[in-house]
Amino acid sequence: MPDERLARALRARIRRKILKEIMKDEKLSVHEIAERLGISEYNASRHLKLLYDLGILDYEVKHPEKYYFIKLRSLKDLFEVYERVVEELRRMG
């Protein structure tokens, strides 16, 4: 089910960080993501593939790199609500 796959994909902190980085610049290469987050390009590629396969990301090729971008416009709204909920939980507890 798409909702379960989305929840599983976004559960991983590193994937949320990847998505936030892409949202900042609109398009990023595997190399740029790996460098910004201090992870290997292999690791970044694995997470990007999962997000791509789920339909959250798409990419364009500008030889020799793939540049990933957010395919779902509503993802930014989801992240904003998520951050508000996290902040509210922090204040409560």
Short description:
The protein is α+β, with helices and mostly antiparallel strands and 93 residues long.
CATH class reads: Mainly Alpha
Whole-number count of domains: 1
- End-to-end Cα distance, whole Å, is 32 Å
- And the CATH topology? Arc Repressor Mutant, subunit A
| Percent in helix | 55-70%
The CATH architecture classification is Orthogonal Bundle
List the helices and strands in order: HHEHHEEH
Main sheet specs: 3 strands, antiparallel
Poorly predicted regions are: none
Residue share in β-strands? 15-25%
The rounded Rg comes to 14 Å
| Number of separate helices | 5
Sheet with the most strands: spatial strand order:
1-3-2
Number of strands: 3
Shape: globular
Average predicted confidence as pLDDT: 92
* CATH 4th-level superfamily: Winged helix-like DNA-binding domain superfamily/Winged helix DNA-binding domain
Structure, explained:
This protein is α+β, with helices and mostly antiparallel strands. It has a single domain, classed as Orthogonal Bundle (Arc Repressor Mutant, subunit A), CATH 1.10.10. Helices cover 68% and strands 15% of the residues. It has five helices and three strands. The protein has helices at residues 2-11, 13-25, 30-37, 41-54, 75-92; strands at 28-29, 57-62, 65-70. The chain has a three-stranded antiparallel β-sheet with strand order 1-3-2. Strand 2 (57-62) and strand 3 (65-70) form a beta hairpin. Helix 3 (30-37) packs across helix 4. Residues 1-90 form the HTH arsR-type domain. This is Winged helix-turn-helix domain-containing protein. It comes from Geoglobus acetivorans. Keywords: DNA-binding, Transcription, Transcription regulation.
